[in-house]
Amino acid sequence: MPIRFLHTADLHLDSPLRTFGDLARERRRDFLKTFDRIVNLAIKREVDCILIAGDLFDSTSVGAETVGRVQDAFSRLAGRGVQVVLIPGTHDNIISAESVYSRYQFTGVHILREPAVDEPLRLDIRGEAVFFYGFAYRSDRSREALESMRRRSGDGIHVGLLHGSLKGNPEWEMRKKDIPFSVADLVALDLDYIALGHYHDAACLEEGGRVIACYPGSPEGKKFGENGPRYALIVEVAPGNASVERVEVQTRIIREFNVDASLFAEPAALEAELARLGTSDTVGRIRLCGTVEEPLDTANLSGRVKGNFAWLELVDETDLYNSGHVKRMEREDSIRGLFIRKIHERYDAAGSDAERELCRDALRLVMGRFSRGGGN
């Protein structure tokens, strides 16, 4: 008989979320709402157990109010007979004496806190023996920890929890504490399913058509790049087999857009296009590109459209440097013409892309002042 799990990881509760400026406090509440949504999903879908594969919290020292919200949610799960198995991650590790897992108790939660697996945790779930393998990484004691997750004897279902990094990602600078592994390493553990955490995008790892392990990804986007829908996984596991369903759980959604401002002849048309992209639950970043004839007043434009978004960052990457308007003004016998000629000279003599970009930014800034009545 398959056992039904809800698998989540990387919730990062109590993160400062400074990326989102004046929305940061509300975003922290979003993360708690998403955690509550995950708990309610577990109850609604009548899962047998929740697997949390690290970084439930964003740090070892967590605010008491946030801890209280989590304790209350876990108590509700316990009252419904839903057990929780959890491993600390890199952010909420147990190395610190101030670790949240040392200072507080969590009802109904089995925390796998040893630096390696001596014997797996056994729980009897609906008459089925379920064995859980996981560890809390310690740099001084976890050298053979991954190997210690290899399946032990015993009939039943064998499940791993691992907060680690799949080898071969060129964008990821691997550290020892990231616990690097390959798909072959996971296959060698001979477990029925491995609940992964650490990477913030959802992905399943397969071998021979069988799901070996999955990352659920972060259930709420922590920064730009963690865009689009975010998930928790409903996983049904039987001996030698696991089936996985992604369920959207985010409170708000992060989206990034590129808009070619040169396609809009009138400012009102550009404003309408930006407003169209927004929704009340969208945390947005819009990059404006293309060659424009006049500098964009992005501060004013942002103020006019930001009400269509939960939060908006407007980035001006338009090219004024090559516009026909600037080329015409360069020939003027004026302060403006002199400035443009000097900028072009500096640009041509620049020794790096960074210096050339600085010239472009200076031109955009000063031409904006001229266009808004700064004189000539």
From TrEMBL:
Protein name per UniProt: DNA repair exonuclease SbcCD, D subunit, putative
Gene: sbcD-1
Keyword Hydrolase: yes
Gene Ontology biological-process annotations: DNA repair
Coiled-coil residue windows: none
Residue ranges of every copy of the Calcineurin-like phosphoesterase domain listed in the record: 3-200
Entry GO MF terms: DNA binding; DNA exonuclease activity
InterPro entries per the UniProt record, alphabetical: Calcineurin-like_PHP, DNA_Repair-Maintenance_Comp, Metallo-depent_PP-like, Mre11_N
Annotated keywords: Exonuclease, Hydrolase, Nuclease
Keyword Hydrolase on entry: yes
Signal peptide range in chain numbering: none
Pfam family name, one: Metallophos
